[in-house]
Specification:
single chain, alpha+beta, 3-stranded antiparallel β-sheet, 13 strands, about 30% strand
Length: about 190
């Protein structure tokens, strides 16, 4: 999977006007600069995730767009779980880009319409995953050789430049200048 210069493709796009766990697949979505996905419950300049709003509703929204790599779904299927695009609440499902290996500040250029997402961090998996499908939470968490927790449930980003994104769109990865910072949960 590519992590620099090259890229992959968008395999699905999803959104939900309500705070639902899963998002409905769409023919296309419109990204709005500084806001997120048009018509999505998490769109906005300030945080929209309900647990974060309860703590401080004025926090900047670093979670405007949620992306998951389709390779995770392949891994989950091999483990006996049935999950597909939009099921885990992501807006953009990708293939061919190692999302989890990207450094903070990476820019993903999606399609030919000029849409750009800047990666802010990792999605922190929550117990709703097990409510959706028992065993899913454990399946999207792992440990590296040093015993550090690995969160595999996707990454989060903000919209730098708006545009329409649809399945089949090419993804170009633009890495930030070094030194690179590992993704942390946001």
């Amino acid at each position: 999977m590519m992590t620099g210069g090259g890229g992959g493709i968008v395999v699905a796009v999803s959104r939900s006007a309500g705070h639902t766990f899963s998002k409905e697949r769409q023919d296309s979505i419109r990204l709005l600069a500084g806001l997120g996905v048009e018509g999505d419950a998490h769109m906005g300049e300030t945080v929209k995730h309900r647990s974060r709003v309860a703590v401080d509703p004025s926090q900047p929204n670093l979670r405007q767009v949620h992306l998951i790599h389709a390779e995770l779904f392949d891994e989950l299927r091999a483990a006996g779980l049935s999950v597909s695009a939009g099921d885990m609440g992501e807006n953009v499902t990708t293939r061919g880009v190692d999302l989890l290996a990207l450094p903070r500040g990476t820019r993903l250029h999606l399609g030919a319409d000029g849409a750009v997402i800047e990666i802010t961090g990792l999605r922190n998996p929550c117990k709703q995953l097990d409510d959706f499908q028992p065993g899913l939470m454990k399946a999207v968490l792992g440990r590296d050789e040093q015993g550090n927790l690995i969160r595999k449930a996707g990454i989060m980003g903000i919209v730098l430049a708006g545009g329409v994104v649809q399945p089949g769109a090419a993804i170009r990865v633009e890495l930030p200048s070094p030194p690179h910072q590992r993704l942390e949960r946001v």
